[in-house]
From TrEMBL:
Classification via InterPro entries: Fe-S_cluster_assembly_SufBD (IPR055346), SUF_FeS_clus_asmbl_SufBD_core (IPR000825), SUF_FeS_clus_asmbl_SufBD_sf (IPR037284), SUF_FeS_clus_asmbl_SufD (IPR011542)
Domain of life: Bacteria
Protein name (record): Fe-S cluster assembly protein SufD
Membrane-spanning segments: none
Record-stated family: Belongs to the iron-sulfur cluster assembly SufBD family.
Source organism (scientific name): Nonomuraea soli
Example GO BP: iron-sulfur cluster assembly
Family matches, as NCBIfam families: sufD (TIGR01981)
Domain SUF system FeS cluster assembly SufBD core: 118-345
């Protein structure tokens, strides 16, 4: 498949399965200007040495899991790669994992997909999660170990179906991960995504959403904690091309240490035919120390005047002295007051994780970050 004839917007001009359609990034391109290319270990130019990722699935009994080859016709039906690394991943993976939730099935437990890096060379992967009409499921994606990894993940949500996804990036400190997540939402379907990014040397995730019929609802949330030297980047795209669909985006991050760098790009497009759209996107960052940097760029492109609601906001700053003073005035030591404020800031989103064990695990990891 070649280049799309109709670009999504001036910010998303290309999508293609052909690697040759994408130039090797130089860092001057809008889509790569924040990413330190020298730390990608060759993923962006095809020079990365071969490695391995182990994929294990603990599936709900109602769910089917398959390992398929590149020629499986179900792969690549909902998306096309939007950058060179995504195209490299598409052209380089050998086996894909396909998870199917049958029509009207309600999964009795979460399905957990664990991707473990071996620490040797670069690996490429592909995952397809298909939720058939009127079905419901929760999927957890866990990324652990050391890896140089690029992959594409497809979420296909059928009519009236509900899919909740939690993606946890808990890599070792030396890991590099570049991933494109794409959700295709059908009529009256619901897609909820929660991204937690804590580990890795460089992590760049690009979640995107498209709608195939009216009534779709997407909720994209995320938290990240960036330590000294880490680069954590999230680039979101919500493409409203159908009427009366909804989307809500809320990402929050905390940064500490020299050269801690967070990047958040939020693009929402409301096309001419997407009348009745209701959308909002928000990104907030807490800068905890000198030497940390947060780049936050919300973009909203509206091509119709008939919308139910549309807005965006971004804020990056330090801890509120008034909040800290209020707690200290009540006998709480400064360090504890600081932890409470940060925990509350991130916790408003973390509380949305419906799995008790995972929610407490994320809270514990945030506490460990603060202790550092």
């Amino acid at each position: 498949m070649g280049l799309n004839e109709k670009p999504l917007s001036t910010l998303h001009e290309k999508s293609s399965f052909n690697l040759e359609d994408f130039d090797v990034p130089s860092g001057r391109e809008e889509s790569w200007r924040f990413t330190p290319l020298s730390r990608l270990k060759g993923l962006h130019k095809g020079t990365a040495a071969a490695g391995h990722i182990t994929v294990t699935v603990d599936a709900a009994p109602e769910v089917t899991v398959e390992t398929v080859g590149r020629d499986d016709a179900r792969l690549g039906q909902s998306f096309a790669p939007a950058d060179r690394v995504s195209a490299q991943a598409w052209n380089s993976f050998e086996k894909a994992t396909v998870i199917t939730v049958p029509r009207e099935a309600v999964a009795s437990k979460p399905t957990v997909v664990t991707l473990t890096g071996s620490g040797e060379g670069a690996a490429f992967g592909h995952l397809l999660i298909k939720v058939e009409p009127m079905a419901e499921a929760v999927i957890v994606l866990e990324h652990v170990g050391s890896a140089v990894y690029a992959d594409n993940v497809e979420f296909v949500v059928g009519d009236g179906a509900t899919l909740k996804v939690i993606s946890l990036q808990d890599w070792n400190d030396d890991a590099v991960h570049v991933s494109q997540h794409h959700a295709q939402i059908a009529k009256d379907a619901t897609f909820k995504s929660f991204v937690v990014t804590l580990g890795g040397d460089l992590v760049r995730l690009s979640p995107s959403v498209t709608y195939t019929a009216p009534g779709g609802d997407a909720d994209l949330s995320g938290v990240y904690f960036v330590d000294a030297g880490q680069h954590l980047e999230h680039r979101l795209l919500v493409d409203h091309s159908q009427p009366t669909c909804k989307s809500n985006v809320d990402y929050r991050g905390a940064l500490q240490g020299q050269d801690a760098h967070a990047v958040w790009i939020g693009d929402v497009i409301i096309r001419v035919e997407a009348e009745g759209t209701d959308t909002y996107e928000l990104n907030r960052n807490l800068i905890l120390t000198d030497g940390a940097r947060a780049d936050s760029v919300p973009n909203l492109e509206i091509l119709t005047g008939e919308v139910a609601g549309a807005g965006h906001a971004s804020a990056s700053g330090r801890l509120d002295d008034e909040h800290l003073f209020y707690l200290q005035a009540r006998g709480i030591p400064y360090d504890e007051a600081k932890r409470l404020v940060i925990r509350g800031f991130l916790g408003q989103l973390i509380e949305k994780i419906e799995l008790d064990e995972l929610r407490e695990r994320v809270f514990a990891k945030v506490e460990a970050e603060l202790a550092r």
